[in-house]
Amino acid sequence: MKITVSGGGLKTAVVILAAGRGERMNSTLPKVLHRIFGKPLLQYVVDSALALKPSRVIVVAGRHYKDIKDSLKGADVSFVIQKEPKGTGDAVLKAWVLLKGFKGAVLVMNGDAPLVTEATLNKFLGLHRKNKNAVSFISFNASNPASYGRVLRDDSGNVISIVEEKDATEVQRKINEVNSGIYAIESDVVGLLKEIPLNAVKHEYYLTDIIGIAGNKGCNVNAYCIGSEDELMGVNTMPELLKAQQAFRKRLVDAWMEKGVVFFDPDSVFIYPEVAIGKGTTIYPNVCLEGKTSIGQRCVVYPNVRIIDSVIKDGAVIKDSTVVEGSVIGARAVVGPFAHIRPGSDIGVEAKIGNFVEIKKSIIGKGTKASHLSYLGDASIGRDVNIGAGTITCNYDGKQKHGTTIEDRVFVGSDTQFIAPVRVGRDAYIGAGSTITKNVPPKALALSRAEQRNIEGWAIKRQSSVVSRQLSVKDKRSGRKKRGI
Ligand code: UD1
Ligand code: CA
To answer: How far, in Å, CA of 430 to CA of 448, rounded?
Structure first.
């Protein structure tokens, strides 16, 4: 009996399969929650599905249902539970319950193939509809096809079926064209899923069997070889996770180079997908740009720098081994080497934060310098302030945090402690080594160290007392010897 496909119009529903055991990962974390550049594999698939603006997206989750649901908080998706992972065919049937009455194409995607692009999916759906197929899938040529289902075609090139590695003959195993795990199934033929037999080897219902079943019923079945392995690869093992990450890194770096970013060792950089980088910026080796970080134009990011959820404005320089978290670095500011800018900080235009300086939740004004060995926490520091080496804000009294305010053009001598809360007025000076416990008025000099006292000839007196002590020790020893002790 030939099933006629009514052609449900342009509507698309997406079903994402994420209920498998993921045994080959040998991990305690569900496979689809392993991350590439901070984002779970499943989130990549969900994002590319949502980009198509489908009628709805359904995620099939299994034993780790709760973790999977939590990981997709806020995403416009529905969930169905497949209690027992009885195979990909069974998983789609579980989702079908939520699609009662839906007319159109059901795009089925494996949750473990994270790198497919919206462009490829759109092209695929276009071909599926143009050719009025009942069932279509995306295939690709795999460098090592061992972990994929092989595409069997007849002498004229028409798709006959998909055969899994375990069920394939020696000859079939040599086929390089493989199933990507992305299918378009017209709603009219979804019922055929019920005809899928239990696979004798794996005791699962293979979704891939729908190809042969639909073809045998005279339905239009087609495979489109339209993407690269780097885009369509599935992740089943840790080495495959690494391979996918490397492929994705290359895609991101290539795109940034295209946009005028300079890299010296792109294989060693980590760039999260939501990062933005401006033209003419240079990225040295071993740099991690994480979260929603944005780097401006003509910035330089030196080796071993990690920047998380931060904004680095045009022309800023981040020197070696610096960490910037949840902060803003102003235009042409210089930060590092070995600086730690902690969340909630705002470093002003042309400011300089140098060696071994830690800044926490502080505002640093334009042109202000803290060049060496300081801790500035909960501080608001004005413009053109000089913070001497070893300056520390004592912002925590054991119970609460308190603020330090230092107004414009203040000169803070080295080794100063500010016991917060405290305020220093503009143009004031703080003598080196001071412990500032009280507010300092504008233009004043604050000094809190003990006055220096010089004792003339002290070293000579010390020397002679040391010599006389040594002589008396010697005398005692020789006395003991004489007495035979
Ligand atoms: C599957 C395909 C194979 C294809 C490959 C592409 C089948 C039988 N084989 O093989 O032809 O080349 O993907 O990467 O479909 N899942 C469920 N419920 C289950 C079983 C699996 O939701 O009961 C989910 C998994 O979480 C995973 C996806 O389906 O996201 C694919 O399952 P997996 O076991 O990885 O299939 P493969 O062996 O990779
Ligand atoms: Ca897989």
So the answer is: 9
Tell how far the Cα of 21 is from the centroid of ligand 1, in angstroms: 10
DSSP-assigned beta bridge partners for residue 328: 311, 346
Q: What backbone phi and psi angles, to 5 degrees, belong to 369?
A: -125, 130
For each of the domains in the chain, give its residue range(s) and CATH number, in order of start.
12-232 (3.90.550.10), 258-446 (2.160.10.10)
User: CA separation (Å) from 449 to 388, 421, 427?
Assistant: 16, 19, 20
Catalytic residues: 372
Alpha carbon separation from 297 to 192, 255, 400 (Å, rounded) = 55, 16, 40
Distance 235 CA to ligand 2 centre (A): 6
Residue 325 pLDDT: 98
Could you tell me the two tokens for 406? 């230092």
- Cis preceding linkage at 54, omega within 30: no
Residue 202's CB: how many other CB atoms inside 10 A? 13
- Residue 385: exposure state from Cβ atoms within 10 A (0-12, 13-18, ≥19): buried
Q: Which strands form 358-360's sheet, in the order they lie side by side?
A: 270-271, 288-290, 306-308, 323-325, 340-341, 358-360, 375-377, 392-394, 417-419, 435-436
Residue in 303, 319, 322, 314 with CA at minimum distance from that of residue 349:
314
Ligand 1 and 334: CB distance under 6 A = no
Tell me how crowded residue 184 is: count the other CB atoms within 10 A of its CB: 24
- CA 83, 84, 85, 90 dihedral sign is negative
In this prediction, residue 356 carries a pLDDT of 98
Whose CA is closest to 36, among 250, 328, 248, 258? 248
Q: Is the CB of 60 under 6 A from ligand 1?
A: yes
Please state whether beta strands 39-40 and 35-36 pair in parallel, antiparallel, or not at all (unpaired): antiparallel
Q: Helix, strand, or coil here: 370?
A: strand
Whether the link from the prior residue into 40 is cis, omega within 30° of 0, is: no
Q: Which residues contact 382 (CB under 8 A, 6 or more apart)?
A: 365, 368, 406, 407, 408, 409, 410, 426
Segment 434-474, tens digit of pLDDT: 999 999 999 999 999 988 999 999 999 999 988 888 888 77
148 CB-side CA count, 13 A: 29
Q: Is 161 in the pocket of ligand 1 (CB under 6 A)?
A: no
Nearest to 145 by CA among 181, 166, 176: 176
DSSP label of 110: E
Give yes or no for residue 80 having a pLDDT over 60.
Answer: yes
